Amino acid sequence: MGSYTDVALIHEEVAVAPTFGSSLPVPNVQEIVKSDPLHVPERYLIKNQEDMPKDADHTCNLSSEIPTIDFSLLSRGHKEELTKLDLACKEWGFFQMVNHGVATEVLQGMKDAAAKFFELPVEEKNKVAMTSDDIQGYGHAYVVSEEQILDWSDLLFLIVYPSQYRKLKFWPTTPEEYKEAIEAYSIEVKRVGEELIRYISLIMGMEKDALLALHQELVQGVLVNYYPPCCMPDKVLGKSPHSDTSTITILMQEDNVTGLQIRKEGEWVPVKPIPNALVVNVGDVVEIWSNGKYKSIEHRAVTTESRARLSYATFLFPHDDVEVEPFDHMVESPGSLRMYKKVRYGDYLRQSLKRKMEGKAHTDAAKTAS
Ligand code: OGA
Ligand code: NI
């Protein structure tokens, strides 16, 4: 228990761990619901008729067409599965991944620990509250003005890899298994995520490890979203439409409540959970590298009247210093347009965090012509 060493370690941690932007403080939605479940404050109400979520679950026929990719076939080198992955990334930017090999206990362990955390009294959760200079910890993200319409959700965000980026002051100590659960889950998601990035490298016509190497250091963050029940689900959004600033995102959903929707051909398509499947979406980095050939799809989360929903998003993204721009070989013919400017990833990420999440606003800002 050498406290001297501990102090040195803490200093070292602070010295190398970057901050990722900030968000204005807003009320805790879970507490709003607890104190008055039948009322939604004005700041959360969507004004624009077109943006209001509709009950798409029964009407949308595209839902059943969301691609499913079998990870075990990819790892056994099946060419057809690689072709399916290529199509899924081009046409959808989005797929359900089955047979990924992550043990059910590991998935469940993460879910149980997170559920327990969100059940704690707010004073306890606030022990790991975000501070004004970072978006790690318990709080909210992408709140940039007092006027914007707010999302009906609370969150807990932690950077897990590289391990020297960890800020342990934001890691819950209750429930005591949280650390172990997020660690066990993240090791597995890292393994699967790195493999997926290798396959994306292949479908882009590159060496298997080329994309991973371009990250300099693969950064991994885990975001647990908590969407409390909402008495006005048709006038409120759990998470506003956005695309992810990551290379790829791997999302675990709950089995029995639908909330995630993706925008396809102008329609909002609900992503019905497949038990034990992980949902994968292409992020902005792959969209830019591929010059728009692979789509970082716009998505959002709706709320439910009767119950809360949790989701667990792992973002994999490059080191701050990586310069991201379309690969030459992805700009189709010599005369074709380069759709995106060169951007330092750290700047791209922080600019995005300063903008309210709004559809494809992040990648639009990176485009060469508006
Ligand atoms: C996200 C996200 C969707 C969901 O966290 O970026 O899109 O279903 N979440 O919670
Ligand atoms: Ni997202």
Overall description:
This protein is α+β, with helices and mostly antiparallel strands and about 375 residues long. The protein is built from eleven helices and 14 strands. The strands form three sheets. An eight-stranded mixed β-sheet has the order 1-2-10-7-12-5-4-3. It has a four-stranded antiparallel β-sheet with strand order 6-11-8-9, with no helix packed on it. β8 and β9 form a beta hairpin. α4 (about 80-90) packs across α7 and α5 packs across α7 (about 180-205). The protein starts with a helix and ends with a helix. It binds N-oxalylglycine and nickel (II) ion (NI). Nickel (II) ion binds near residues 244, 249 and 299.
